[in-house]
Amino acid sequence: MKLILFGPPGAGKGTQAKLLTKCFKLPHISTGDILRNEVKNNTDLGRQAKGFMDSGKLVPDTLVTEMVKKRMAAKDLEKGFILDGYPRTVSQARSLDEILETGIDTAVYLSTSEKVVVQRLTGRRVCSKCGTNYHLVNMPPKKDMLCDQCQVPLYQRPDDNEATVRNRLKVYLEESSGVLDYYRKQNKLENVSGDLDSEEVCKIISKNIFGSLK
Ligand code: ADP
Ligand code: ADP
Ligand code: ZN
User: What is the C-alpha radius of gyration for the chain, rounded to an integer number of angstroms?
Assistant: First the structure.
């Protein structure tokens, strides 16, 4: 199963990817996580990407696609993968089809509204060890600001402030919405409401897309 999770920032892609990988034992590939790791390790790629990420702009296609190509060459993807955060432009979608040769199976579009996005992203807190996403109100950790699994402190991403969030939404509308048409034309787009409870969203994806697969 080669599955894409697509949608505006804050739609719940990372959260769904984590829930689905638990059920279906598929690797979760998040371009945002890979990039943040490169920044943390101060690599060449990280230094090139940082400015774009901090201001909520897209990292140039060539850099991100090269990174995805490398990840796709790894041996652990024989059964498929859940790809979160890529493609974000039509050019990236074309590159992915070239990399995979046979293309993807399904792109799940998690739809939601600007109001929900701003509430979710400004309240998002992330585990610094395992990357699990929490939310101050919607999905708080059991103990004050510590990850339920790792017991390490949660942090707020530097791009999750309101001004940058609004900019990311603008960038999404301008540069990423073409990806919807791209997969619609291939008959591979599945629309799921991102506004539902996260367990509910996961159930719908599991039932409609994975079917009896388990
Ligand atoms: P994305 O990867 O699309 O940017 P996340 O999965 O990180 O989105 O979710 C953004 C924020 O919203 C996180 O703080 C997360 O805990 C919260 N969240 C995710 N899914 C839901 C949901 N279905 N209902 C309420 N809050 C959610
Ligand atoms: P979100 O949780 O808001 O969907 P991500 O964690 O996926 O955000 O991405 C964070 C940032 O990393 C983006 O704002 C962008 O700068 C960069 N990035 C991630 N994936 C891509 C991509 N496919 N193309 C270009 N930039 C990307
Ligand atoms: Zn953790």
Answer: 16
* 135 within a domain of the structure (yes/no): no
H helices then E strands: how many in the chain? 9, 8
CATH number at residue 99: 3.40.50.300
Cβ of 168 closer than 6 Å to ligand 2, yes or no, is: yes
What are the distances in angstroms from CA 207 to CA 79, 165, 200, 204, 210?
19, 32, 11, 5, 6
Q: How many domains does the chain have?
A: 1
The parent domain of residue 85 ranges over: 2-112+162-210
Residue pLDDT tens, the chain, 214 long: 999 999 999 999 999 999 999 989 999 999 999 999 999 999 999 999 999 999 999 999 999 999 999 999 999 998 999 999 999 999 999 999 999 988 999 999 999 999 999 999 999 999 989 889 999 999 999 998 999 999 999 999 999 999 999 999 999 999 999 999 999 999 999 999 999 999 999 999 999 988 855 4
Domain-located, residue 155: no
Q: Which atom of ligand 1 is nearest to the CA of 9?
A: 4
117, part of any domain:
no
Decide: 12 in ligand 1 pocket, CB within 6 A: yes
